[in-house]
Amino acid sequence: MPPHKIRHLDTGSRIVVLVTCGLFVAALFSKGLGHGILLEAGVFLVSVKLIVFAYKNSVTGAQIKEQLSRIESLLEREER
Fold first, then answer.
1. HSE-up (13 A, CA, CB side) for residue 55
2. What is the pTM of this model?
3. High-pLDDT (> 90) share of the chain, %
4. Is the dihedral angle over the CA atoms 14, 16, 21, 26 positive or is it negative?
């Protein structure tokens, strides 16, 4: 499968993103722009950071898989 067609965010991650954004917006409206919003923003940023790390991990895994496939094909060609 070509790298541009690989889905790096699975359905669970997409749901977490939507729920986190929804809860952040709800907290923004319920708490206003006061001091409490800083805590909510911190929680939101931690969630985003975890999602970004998961995305980078997925991209790196796909690259490693592609490189291993190339190495495997070179070894098979060498054995023949």
1. 10
2. 0.59
3. 20
4. positive
DSSP string, 26-64: HHHHHHTTSTHHHHHHHHHHHHHHHHHHHHHHHHHHHHH
* CB-based contacts of 31, cutoff 8 Å, min separation 6: 37, 40
Whole-number Å distance between alpha carbons of 6 and 32? 39
Under 8 Å between Cβ of 27 and 39:
no
For the four alpha carbons of 19, 20, 25 and 28, in that order, the dihedral sign comes to: positive
Distance separating alpha carbons of residues 53 and 47, to the nearest angstrom: 10
User: In whole numbers, what is the pLDDT of the chain averaged over residues?
Assistant: 80
